[in-house]
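[audit] Reproducing an earlier prediction to check determinism. Same input, same settings, fresh worker. If the tokens differ from the archived copy the diff job will pick it up downstream; this log only records the rerun itself.
[audit] input (278 residues):
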Amino acid sequence: MTDIDRALVVGATGNIGRHAVALLRERGVAVRGMARDPAGLPAGVEPSRGDVRDPEALGRALAGVDAALLIWPFPTADGIAAVAGALAGEARRVAYVSALSVRDDRPPAESGVWGEVEDAIRRTGVAWTFLRPSGFATNTRQWAEDIRAGRVVRVAYPEAARSLIHERDIAEVAARVLTEPGHAGAAYTLTGPATLTQAEQVRVLAAAAGRAARVEAATPEEARAQLGWAGPGWAEAILRHWASLVDSPEPVTGTVERLTGAPARSFAQWAAEHAAEF
């Protein structure tokens, strides 16, 4: 049983959001899914079209909800104060998909957009829970074209080691913290069950697809070009982070299993599920 009747998932058609929608429904919660294009939502989910930063669209999406899952896809925290205030004005619980890199012993701005979003939510006084996942397994889709074509995969910092997490595991935790008491004020570090270097990740993906793969280090110029979507400032921050993971890999935690009762899914499992893409 849960004391939550209706939940809003912001970013409901994305990699995490679509799983969260299904899992919340399995837990007996009515779900409203907000997305710029909610056409792909399953039957039984109330669609809400709009950008989360649009006050009118967000107001419509929030009407009558008890809990909200926020996925903030933007490279800056511009507009988050108003969004956080609106969430707190309607929902009793808010969960936010943050990032492993957030540090509680530093000013929020030093933790990038994720720290700033956390700070804005915290300041509202709402019952919040922050999910701080490691690298997303789904982001390895960036190598799919090269693997399919049999080309050398050029990777920035091939020896950077990450504890990649399956997007469904993030959604599993989100569904629980939104529908169960006892998670207010918690910041959960969520990871996969093991670390793999980026070179190892490429090889796992290729093997799942029945292919061979060769990995070479990308030049700084190639790496920046691969991150063109992020903008110069964010791209440099990402590259610095990857460089740090060569000597200081992402940690491995048991938080997913502790909160859900099931071990975190392996990267090999994610690769097998998505082998057709590679």
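[audit] rerun output stored. Observation attached for the diff report: The mean pLDDT is 95.
[audit] end
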